Prior knowledge:
Number of domains: 2
Radius of gyration: 23 Å
Order of helices and strands: HHHHHHHEEEHHHHHH
Number of helices: 13
CATH superfamily of the largest domain: Intergrase catalytic core
Strand content: under 5%
Strand order of the largest sheet: 1-2-3
Shape: elongated
Structural class: mainly alpha
CATH topology of the largest domain: hpI Integrase, Chain A
Amino acid sequence: MQRIFEVMWQPYIKGFKAYLQLEQSLSEHSVKAYLHDVMLFVQYAQMHAIQGSPADVQLQQLQQFLQHLAVLGLSAASQARIISGLRSFYKYCLTEQIVVKDPTVLLEAPKQKRALPDVLSVAEIDAIIDTFDLSTNDGIRNKAIIETMYSCGLRVSEVVQLKLTQLYFDDGFIRVIGKGDKERLVPIGTSAMKHVDIYRHYVRVHMPIQHGFEDFLFLNKFGKHLSRVMIFLMIKDAVAKAGIQKIVSPHTFRHSFATHLVEGGADLRAIQEMLGHASITTTEIYTHLDRAFLRSTLQNFHPAFRKL
């Protein structure tokens, strides 16, 4: 009996998947996440004998679903993400005239505390970069990777997918393919260009490259592009060697890139463009980081803020 509801919803979920892939051009990872969010509600509906099509779902049922997630111990952030998935599903249903009313419109997400991410200082980033052994091919490559990630504020997925044909060093830019296959031009620093060129001309040029990977910039020893996991492990090892106690991931370099720009007085809209954020709201988290930086500066250097 429980399977009837899931079978009934399968055509809608299949259509939603095609909508995300073809019309929204989302990555495979994002598509899976959205489908997972909808299936969580489907499973809940089966357990609680909720019947009908997407058009029959009521706001109260979705609110009870959220309460169920809270009881299970899901964080406010996880609940908000699931709501986002359901909203996208009902946006699709409206577009395809499967429903005439969206029950998620008045669905309120739990309020989240905006966590400020760990940020590395310039000195800490230099210490991490200095751990790479430039007498080895891997060391030369890894230094070029970190220089590029920090110089351009790249996501880990963007750096592993970076192509030779996306480098415009004569103009001091790279072309980045971000979320949803959206392209953006990002300036790249002199140091990053220098170390990328060293890697290209002294390491990569001598590597046997597998068919289909000729255009990828950063390659592993088998001549294929790097995986996200390899970047995580490389950074973890370098951070340990540098003796830094903070939790550092590839995204930490992106956070640090944005924070250092804000601290230096950069325009928030320009930072939004370089990071590839769809909304300025996402970028505005760095103004909170900047306020913390300003306050610590005052506490350290302004007489009125010094502890008695």
